[in-house]
Each structure stands twice: as C-alpha cells, then as structure tokens.
C-alpha cells in the first residue's frame, strides 16, 4: 500500500516510502541501490505502475473517436487525468492543460505557436544563464526564424540570478521571459513570483520551466500568475513520454495550432481545415493515454505523501549531504545559492566527473555526471562537468551516508 503519512500526521518515514518503489530493491554491483538521480528521472511507485497496468488490461483503446465502451473508458481515463492535472496545479480550466511529451515539447510548442508568429526584429526574449538546453535552444530557433533577439540574465558565483541585471535587461522590447523555477544543474530556486510580477509590469509574458519544481514544491498556477508553465511526468514519479503545458486560456486560444493531424481538427477538406476546441487543438495524433493515467496516479501519490512533507524531507537530506560533502578534502560544491532544492552538484579535485560516477556506481550509488544539459552553466564555472546527486521522496539518511562514503572511496582511489 502506498504510504499516506501527511493525513495521519506521522513523521515522514522515508524507509517506508522507499518500499513503495520496487526498483529500489535492486542490487547494483553487489550493493543495494542508492538512487540519487531523480532530477534526471525519478522512479515510479506501485500505485503508478498499477494504474498504468490496470489501464492497459482493462480500459485501453483510442480516445475521443470511438462510440464503443472501451474507447469511452479510455477517453474518461485520459480526460480524468487532465482534470487531475488541473487540480494539482490549480489551473482555472482543463482547457488550459495540454498534454505533451515533456517539458521540452511544451517549451517548443510555446516557441513555435506563440513566439514565432508574433515576434520579429527588435523584439527580445529574456532567459537566465542557468537554463537547461530545453529552455535555450527553442528560443534560439525562434530568433533565427523571426529575427528577434535572445537576452540572457547573468548568474553570480553562487549560481543565483543577479536580479538587478535581470531587471535591467527586462525592457520595453522584452516580449517573453522564460526561466526555470529550479535549476537542474545547480539546484538554485529562482524568485519566480517576483519575475512574473516584474515581467507583467513591463508587458512581457512569462514561461516557467517547472521540470525541477513540481516534484518538490506545491505549484499553484493561478496564484503564480505565469502565462505558461511546463513540466515532465518522469521527474515526478510518473512514466516517461508524458508532460504538461499549462497555458492561460486567453493566450492558448489566440495561438495557431502547432502540429496538424487527427484530433486537433473539427473539419477537414482539401480546401481548408478548421480547428478543434482547446486544449485538443494542440494535441495532434494519438496521445500518450497510459502516460496520462500514470501521471494522474503520480499526482495522487505525491499528495498522499504530502508535497510539503516531501519537500521538507528532501531539504533536510540536502543540508545533511551538503555539510558532509563539504568536509571531504578536494570537493568543490558547484551551486551554493541561499535557496536551493534537491540538487547537489560538485567536483572532486583530480578526478573527472565521469570517473567519479563510475566509482560511485561500483558502490551501488547512482549519480549523474556531465554537463546536465546546461553547458552554459559549466562554461560559466569554467568546468567541463560536475557530478550531481539529487534527492527524491524515497531517499534516506542511509543513502546520504553511503553516498558520502563512496565519494571518500573515490578520493582514496585517485588520491
Ligand atoms: N528543464 C529542466 C530544468 C530540466 O531539468 C529538464 C530535464 O532534465 C528539462 C527541462 C527537459 O525535460 P524533458 O527531457 O523531460 O523534456
């Protein structure tokens, strides 16, 4: 049974939560797995695995087009998942919830269907220097296609946005601001409410990349006021291949379709086609129905744990691991912002991050190594790569201890 801790007011029991995730019973290289790569992709708990299997066993058919019972069951499951997402982020309407493959697709959708048709020479798109490639490259493509300009607000050596510079760059020409709520490479939490307010005050719309935020913080799309909010299911305990673009209905309704095909149309003739209502206008082709079902189950699961309780637990692990890692000789922490979530990036003197990752793997400890799809961040710090430990709802203090011991071992091997 899935843990339901918040509702009974019990202290957070990570060991019990861990048992909801069958994959975490795996042994790697003879050691029980310590999974510290949730920022890349989190694992799935039994309720998610079961929901996806039950859907496939009992309800699968194509959606929206069938009058037969299974098609209606599949449609109900898919549209039910959309309503679950709406509730999870407190959107006004399911018309504002577009199912996509993930954050990357959501941002490309906005780039191509919102920015590209509207922006031209003289217009500016403002991002920050700590963005994931998914929140850089789609805007570069729009700039090439439309002649608009990409501006980048700098970060400081702690990995925090230099807000005065951000404000300076946010001008009359800024049409769109696109920033992460939490940096995947550094863990920095950005002041997104302030960014939304300041951007709106200057007439710019705002896209928030919430890929690293939704698993760790309650997101209220309405309260935040962002125009677009993007996230991926697979970083919040759901399957891969499903994600969400939240878009304010007024904006989404003013956008032309992005991809054409089945489901996004109302009528088709060889002379012209007309478009379906929101949000289906932006969902061409057969969607990831089972993924949406899994996403809804993951949202139920996270809420059963209590997102605030999960966040508090992860913050404690992050603080523990940060303090312990900082004591290991040769370790440099990369990203030391005052406000961080769940991510601990670091280097070890004399050891390439990939070698470090390999040694940790030999100890059963899974961390990510490389540029974390944030090459400009690595360039800023003058390093090719970091090792990155990231924490999820199932990590324990024992995981932290094993991780620190494994880093110590790597130091001995290369020392
Ligand atoms: N944005 C951030 C901050 C991320 O961490 C990631 C994935 O690591 C993405 C965007 C891209 O997400 P996806 O690969 O699920 O589309």
Radius of gyration: 22 Å
Sum up the overall morphology in one term. Answer: globular
Ligand catalogue: pyridoxal-5'-phosphate
| First and last CA, distance | 46 Å
How are strands sequenced across the largest beta sheet? 4-10-9-8-7-5-6
Q: Could you say what the CATH topology of the largest domain is called?
A: Aspartate Aminotransferase, domain 2
Number of strands: 17
Class by helix and strand content? alpha/beta
CATH class of the largest domain: Alpha Beta
Biggest β-sheet: count, sense, barrel? 7 strands, mixed
* Reported CATH architecture of the largest domain: 3-Layer(aba) Sandwich
Short description, anyone?
This protein is 40% helix and 17% strand. It has helices spanning 14-18, 46-59, 69-89, 103-118, 137-146, 163-169, 192-201, 221-224, 249-253, 289-305, 307-326, 353-362, 375-381, 397-414; strands spanning 27-28, 31-32, 34-35, 97-100, 124-128, 149-153, 174-180, 205-209, 228-232, 243-247, 265-268, 273-275, 331-334, 343-348, 365-366, 368-370, 386-390. Helix 2 (46-59) packs antiparallel against helix 10, helix 3 crosses helix 10 (289-305) and helix 11 packs parallel to helix 14.
Secondary-structure map with pairings?
Blueprint: H1 14-18, E1 27-28, E2 31-32, E3 34-35, H2 46-59, H3 69-89, E4 97-100, H4 103-118, E5 124-128, H5 137-146, E6 149-153, H6 163-169, E7 174-180, H7 192-201, E8 205-209, H8 221-224, E9 228-232, E10 243-247, H9 249-253, E11 265-268, E12 273-275, H10 289-305, H11 307-326, E13 331-334, E14 343-348, H12 353-362, E15 365-366, E16 368-370, H13 375-381, E17 386-390, H14 397-414
Parallel strand pairs: 3-15, 5-6, 5-7, 7-8, 8-9
Antiparallel strand pairs: 1-2, 4-10, 9-10, 11-12, 13-14, 14-17, 16-17
Helix pairs in contact: 2-10, 3-10, 4-5, 11-14
Pyridoxal-5'-phosphate binds next to helix 4.
């Amino acid at each position: 049974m899935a843990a339901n801790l918040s509702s009974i007011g019990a202290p957070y029991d990570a060991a019990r939560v861990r048992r909801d995730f069958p994959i975490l019973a795996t042994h790697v290289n003879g050691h029980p797995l310590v999974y510290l790569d949730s920022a890349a992709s989190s694992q799935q708990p039994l309720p998610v695995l079961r929901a996806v299997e039950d859907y496939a066993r009992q309800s699968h058919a194509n959606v929206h087009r069938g009058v037969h019972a299974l098609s209606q069951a599949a449609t109900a499951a898919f549209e039910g998942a959309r309503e679950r997402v709406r509730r999870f982020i407190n959107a006004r309407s399911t018309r504002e919830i577009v199912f996509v493959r993930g954050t990357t697709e959501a941002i490309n959708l906005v780039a191509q269907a919102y920015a590209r048709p509207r922006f031209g020479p003289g217009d500016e798109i403002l991002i920050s220097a700590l963005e994931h490639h998914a929140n850089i490259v789609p805007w570069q493509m729009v700039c090439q296609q439309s002649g608009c300009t990409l501006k980048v607000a700098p970060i400081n050596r702690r990995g925090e946005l230099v807000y005065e510079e951000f404000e300076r760059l946010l001008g009359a020409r800024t049409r769109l601001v696109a920033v992460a709520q939490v940096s995947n490479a550094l863990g920095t939490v950005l002041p997104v409410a302030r960014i939304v307010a300041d951007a709106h005050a200057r007439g710019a719309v705002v896209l928030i990349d919430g890929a690293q935020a939704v698993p760790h913080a309650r997101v209220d799309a309405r309260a935040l006021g962002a125009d677009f909010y993007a996230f991926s299911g697979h970083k919040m305990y759901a399957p891969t291949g499903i994600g969400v673009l939240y878009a304010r209905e007024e904006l989404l309704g003013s956008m032309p379709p992005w991809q054409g095909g089945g489901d996004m149309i109302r009528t088709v003739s060889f002379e012209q086609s007309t478009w379906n209502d929101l949000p289906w206008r932006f969902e061409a082709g057969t969607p990831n129905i089972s993924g949406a079902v899994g996403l809804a189950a993951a949202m139920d699961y996270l809420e059963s744990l209590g997102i605030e309780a999960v966040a508090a637990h992860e913050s404690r692990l992050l603080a523990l691991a940060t303090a312990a890692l900082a004591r290991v000789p040769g370790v440099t922490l990369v990203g030391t912002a005052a406000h961080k979530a769940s991510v601990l990036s670091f280097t070890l003197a004399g050891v390439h991050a990939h070698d470090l990752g390999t040694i940790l793997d030999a100890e059963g400890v899974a961390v990510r190594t490389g540029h974390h799809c944030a090459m400009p961040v690595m360039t800023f710090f003058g390093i090719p790569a970091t090792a990155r430990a990231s924490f999820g709802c199932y990590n324990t203090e024992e995981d932290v201890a094993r991780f620190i011991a494994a880093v110590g071992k790597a130091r001995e091997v290369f020392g």
